Amino acid sequence: MPLVASIIAAFGLVVVGGVILSINHAVQNTTLRRNDLVGIRTSQTKKSDRAWQVAHEAALTPMRITAYLSFACAALTVVIGAFAHSEALIVVAIGLSYVASLAALTWACRVAHRAAAAVQ
């Protein structure tokens, strides 16, 4: 049962990483226009089309790192789920994986917000 929980948690991390890489791809191809659904939406990034574009370009590297970190955490979560004998360890691994991904995503959002603020 712990392996199943690890796989489910890992699936969520892979989805997060995939969505982030998709957004990065759209930014690089200049197809991600300012919108209310997808992208980094802060008070500064939503102020203008230019601020939106500059912000997302500035966040490309942090977002890529976040995606790869999410993939690595997903793999680590499955490995720990497969070999750990303690359910507590598995829960901690899953929790830390999501915290690490969220912290990296927060970093990317801060980079974008600051870049957009500099445009104004």
How is the secondary structure organized here?
Layout: H1 2-28, H2 49-58, H3 60-83, H4 87-119
Keywords: Membrane, Transmembrane, Transmembrane helix
Organism: Corynebacterium uropygiale
Pfam families: SdpI
Q: Can you give keywords for this protein?
A:
mainly alpha; 120 residues; 0% strand; 78% helix; single chain; transmembrane; membrane
Provide mean pLDDT, rounded.
Answer: 94
What would you call the structural class?
mainly alpha
The whole-angstrom Rg is: 16 Å
**What is the H-and-E element order?**
HHHH
**Strand percent estimate:** under 5%
Low-confidence stretches: none
What sort of overall outline do the alpha carbons produce when their principal axes are compared? elongated
Task: State the helical fraction.
Answer: over 70%
- Report the sheet with the most strands, covering strand number, pairing sense and barrel closure: none
The number of distinct helices, counting runs of at least 4 residues, comes to 4
**Kindly, what is the distance between the CA atoms of the first and last residues, rounded to a whole number of angstroms?**
52 Å
Number of domains: 1
Total strand segments: 0
Transmembrane segments: 6-27, 65-84, 90-109
InterPro entries: SdpI/YhfL
Protein name: SdpI family protein
Keywords: Membrane, Transmembrane, Transmembrane helix
